Amino acid sequence: MSGSSDYLSRRAKGIDASGIRKVFDLAAKLKDPINLSIGLPDFDVPEPAKAAAIEAIRAGHNRYTPTQGFEPLRQRLRKDLSAELGRDAGEVLITSGVSGALLLAILAVIDPGDEAVFLDPYFVMYKQLLALAGGQAALVDSYPDFRFHADRVEQAITPRTKLLMLNSPSNPTGVAMSRQEIESAVAVARKHELLILSDEIYEPFFYPNAEGAGRPPSPAPLYEKTLLLRGFSKSHAMTGWRLGYAAGPAELIAEMAKLQQYTFVCAPSPFQEAALKALDVPMDKAVADYRRKRDLACQLLSRKFEVVRPEGAFYVFPKAPAGLTATEFVARAIEHNVLVIPGSVFSRRDTHFRLSYAAADEKLQQGCDILCSLA
């Protein structure tokens, strides 16, 4: 071999290392940084779910489950989702996180040269996983309001488009699609016979204008060609347990299950039993805490930054100060021990930065104060 890396595939070389992980690695080297970079809940897994996981492990429930997942959990999710959607939710597959579900879905749908349409800014995995499958990302600019504009989306659709990917509430912007936007997205998908992939991992964290709980609108009740992706990482702080699920058309779930058989095999066994218990644990307090943190972050940052008020998840996506790219501003913030993510990680633009307010109030206050002083 002429070089030490000649054996590496073009596929692997074509995937960028996550800019988020680079900041995560940097955080490990700093002494007590104010880390507002990672989408990691600052509460722990609920005690009943922990106890159920420990009990399952001690009872010897540590073997493979069926590839489709632990049957009682699958049936419970199908029942709950069907009641929520007002129709049969379709088949359910338990996956190794929503990221695992994304990979399986894209591999099951996308052939080389096929296209998927989604908004820019976008979750970092979308573009890379499409590249892994040989597909193309058709990015639709959503600046400056980060809303779903059907006319812009329609302009991006070509004869090779197979997939419309929605992420609401959004990572990185925190914007949640309105009912009218969902209806327009469904109309576009129906007109062009597209599958909708609805990434709803942040669905529990929704802060409508009116006080109280509620769910963000979803395309799934309106359109049967919707693949619904949700999970337990954010809602129950199970980020390290790697547990998500997909629900949708039977033929698609069957193909995803077949691909899972040859990749992940199955999701972690004892944690699937714990997830069944977690479904009965109210998480209202966590949602209320993040609503309050959202309000605090917006109040503090709006003093110096242009901010689109997020309606869900636990991110805000402010515009960098005039005269600086987001990458330059983030470098300056890191010099002052505050970790945030440049928007270029999520976008073709380098004008905004992502801040996660999933942090202790004191750290959030300190971090926002420092960012404002740098602006």
Kindly describe this structure.
The chain is an alpha/beta fold. The protein folds into two domains: 10-44 and 283-374, Aspartate Aminotransferase, domain 1 (Alpha-Beta Complex); 63-278, 3-Layer(aba) Sandwich (Aspartate Aminotransferase, domain 2). It is built from 13 helices and twelve strands. It has helices at residues 10-13, 19-29, 47-58, 71-85, 97-109, 124-132, 150-156, 179-192, 250-261, 269-278, 284-301, 326-335, 361-374; strands at residues 34-35, 91-95, 115-120, 136-141, 161-167, 195-199, 226-231, 244-248, 315-316, 338-339, 341-342, 353-356. Helix 3 packs antiparallel against helix 10 (269-278). The termini are far apart. The model has no long low-confidence stretch (mean pLDDT 94).
Short overview:
Helix content is 40%, strand content 14%. The chain is built from 13 helices and 12 strands. The chain has a 7-stranded mixed β-sheet, sandwiched between helices.
- Backbone CA Rg: 21 Å
Number of H/I helices: 13
> What is the general shape?
globular
CATH superfamily membership of the largest domain = Type I PLP-dependent aspartate aminotransferase-like (Major domain)
- Kindly report the spatial arrangement of strands forming the biggest sheet: 2-8-7-6-5-3-4
Largest sheet: 7 strands, mixed
Top-tier CATH class of the largest domain: Alpha Beta
Number of strands: 12
User: What is the averaged pLDDT score?
Assistant: 94
Whole-number tally of structural domains: 2
In terms of structural class, how would the helical and strand content be classed?
alpha/beta
Assembly type of the chains comes to: single chain
CATH topology of the largest domain: Aspartate Aminotransferase, domain 2
Task: Provide the β-strand percentage band.
Answer: 5-15%
SSE order: HHEHHEHEHEHEHEEEHHHEHEEEH
CATH architecture term of the largest domain: 3-Layer(aba) Sandwich
Helix content: 25-40%
